[in-house]
Amino acid sequence: MAANIITLSRVVIAFIALALFGSNFYGQALAFLLTIIVIYMDALDGYVARKLNIASDLGALLDITGDRIVENIYWVYFAAAGVISFWMPVIVITRGFLTDSLRSIAFAEGKTAFGDKTMMQSAFTQFLVSSRFSRGLYGIGKAIIFCYLGGLIALRGAVGQFSLALPPDLLPTLDLVGQIVVYVVVAMCVIRGIPVLWDGRVYLLEKRYPKSVRKEP
Length: 217
Prior knowledge:
By secondary structure, the chain is mainly alpha-helical.
């Protein structure tokens, strides 16, 4: 229960942070700090569940749902703010719908996205999708880019509000670095999604073509 409360709380805090990004510099600075807290809570809920020995399949599913909401609203906001391309959230959200649909089917049949009952069928796809290394690397990537883009918005707010004199090439350079990191993180998102679609194809086939029908000549 405690871990689920943390998951739900981080979703609420994420919405507050994005609302503050649209205000003045002080609100944007607070939004930047709240974004860091949201990212920290992403790791905290899992830690609490393991520490209190209250981890469950439902909790894991709720954690993925919370992650997806937070991830998607940040991508959408940064695109709406003109910080990233419109196509970045389109790709991420499309990937999320596809993988989460398959995971929901698998969950109904007793399989989970991660853990001992994972829906992934080979050691290689488990490594790409559900290993701590893969999940940690992708999580770090999202943490970096969300904080980076949030910090960039706050910096632009400071320049506008306080008329800061920055080197002329600084902001364009920071934008370029941000775009590079965005493409890397989105590429990681797609790469981690492909194995889910591949291993999850059996659930689609079983639902559309029952085994008793598929075996007929």
